[in-house]
Amino acid sequence: MFPELTGFLFPNDVHIHWSLMIVLYPYITGLVAGAFLVSSLYHVFGRDEFKPLGRFALATALCFLAVAGLPLLNHLGHPERAINIVVTPNFTSAMAGFGILYASYFIILLFEVWFVFRVDIIETAARSRGFKRRLFSILALGVYDVSPQSQAVDKRITRILAAIGIPMACLLHGYVGFLFGAVKANPWWSTPLMPVIFLFSAMVSGIALLIVLYQIAMKLKGMAIDRYAIAAMSRWLWLFMIMSLTLELLEIMMLAYERAEEWEVIGHLLTHQLSFSFISLQMIGGGLVPLILLGIVVLMDRYMDDRIRNTLSMVASLLLLLQVLSMRWNVVIGGQMFSKSMRGFREAYVPGMFEKEGILAAALILFIPFVLLVIFERVLPTFRHLERGDDPA
Amino acid sequence: MDPESPLIHTKHVFRAAILLLAVIGSLLLGRSLFVPDTWGEFGWYRGAAVAEHRARPVRHLGDESCAMCHDAEFAEHAAGVHAAVRCELCHGPLVLHANLEDGEKIADMPVRRSRELCELCHRKLDARPASFPQIDVREHLTEQGADLTPDACFDCHDPHSPY
């Protein structure tokens, strides 16, 4: 059936072609970029407060990156043709960057994970028998050197890889923002701020995800939640969320103050079609509330009981995860709800539960990285260095 | 390797580097296998695709071919306001109906009798020229006292030459 239309729409403005899957793709790559940053804060910049999380953050980044392409594949009518953009990229299109950025970042991340977990791989190989032993010997590339000298080499290389990884993560996610920012026909997308907004919200979602996952992991393992790690992550999260919210608001304030012809349609979009997902979720529930909660965590840190700090940061993180998801929704879907004529709207898009690109498909795709993470944790425990009390690579 | 050499503890790094080279090599090899031979011959597409498209069998033959058997419908259609709407748009491609070699009928011609088909052009849209006939289907059917059935349009309108 046709959607309800109001005002002056061109016939090709009627359908939402970039569906829930295209909302999910930048969301997942954002989680990767944010999680990677936390691991790099330890591995490159030596922030010791992130030591408990350095390995876990890296594993999280890898598990989410492994599924980042899935929403795109599900969105395509012919997923088997997806390889074409990778093998014959046409550089007059920004999308050509995908294969190169994604593959290079994936390779860097894989190698960093290998250097960080190399000693664990060797130890597992030594402990196991039969197939598992053979598998882990292959994973160790047949070298069983765990001497302090070799671990020092691992550490140096991890540092280099993580340092290369930071600009790569920024490029991968910045490019996603660039894709939207470079659509000059759409005033809701076309702004040079877009890649920057995407980057900062990526950091927010990634750090928020780690705060949530770390606390759950510690509860499940019966280990103590490190107060310094939570306090430090809350500080970074507060900083990034302030930057992210400021940029998001700046973009709208510029549009509102300039009152150019596009404001007619964008102002209406934000206060009507997107009123719930923009005002209630992105700005108030997911913006203002966590701003206050994290403000309390950061400013009153020294007076705070651990349980209150954990709870406040957990609630703020969950709200921020929702905030970033709604921000992606408002950008991707919001940008397709008005006409390029700037004089008409289509009705709000509600994805179906069981559609090919519907809610169930999205939930399943979003669930896979958590399964991968559980498997990773089984194979290579990410918190083992805490139990041993040694210094991870 | 000399046990005193400082490189003795970097053996795994060399293995990893070899693995990296192998990965890059296999990516390049994979690319050379995936990229078709005639890629880029004329532009950003497979050169052979031009000849392949040219060799594809014809499926649509245009209104004049329909007139070979259905001259009455053809004349009525050509004189009406739908003259610019091709026969095969509402009916199927001719290849489903007639043998293209000798023009013999091979099967009944499919026809799309759906309200949605009419709505593609006649649904009220502010962006269409005001002079173009367009309706709000529900409003129109209520005015005419008709039901919202899938082929409601055809109860009153003859698509060959509608008024």
Number of domains of chain B: 3
Return the structural class of chain A: mainly alpha
Average pLDDT of chain A, rounded to a whole number, is 92
Low-confidence stretches of chain A: none
User: What is the overall number of helices of chain B?
Assistant: 8
Q: What sort of overall outline of chain A do the alpha carbons produce when their principal axes are compared?
A: globular
Assembly category: heterodimer
Distance between the termini of chain A: 57 Å
Outline:
The complex is a heterodimer of chains A (393) and B (163). By secondary structure, chain A is mostly helical.
Protein architecture, described:
The complex is a heterodimer of chains A (393) and B (163). Chain A is built from 14 helices and 2 strands; from the N terminus they run E-H-H-H-H-H-H-H-H-H-H-H-H-E-H-H. Chain A has one domain: Formate dehydrogenase/DMSO reductase fold, CATH 1.20.1630.10. Helices cover 70% and strands 2% of the residues of chain A. With 393 residues, chain A is mainly alpha-helical. The radius of gyration of chain A is 22 Å and the shape is globular. In chain A, strands 1-2 form a two-stranded antiparallel ribbon. The model of chain A has no long low-confidence stretch (mean pLDDT 92). Chain B is mainly alpha-helical. Chain B has 3 domains: 50 residues, no CATH class; 55 residues, Helix Hairpins, CATH 1.10.287.3080; 51 residues, no CATH class. The interface between A and B is medium-sized, with 33 and 22 residues.
List keywords for this structure.
heterodimer, A: 393 residues, mainly alpha, Formate dehydrogenase/DMSO reductase fold, two-stranded antiparallel sheet, 14 helices, globular, B: 163 residues, Helix Hairpins, 8 helices, elongated
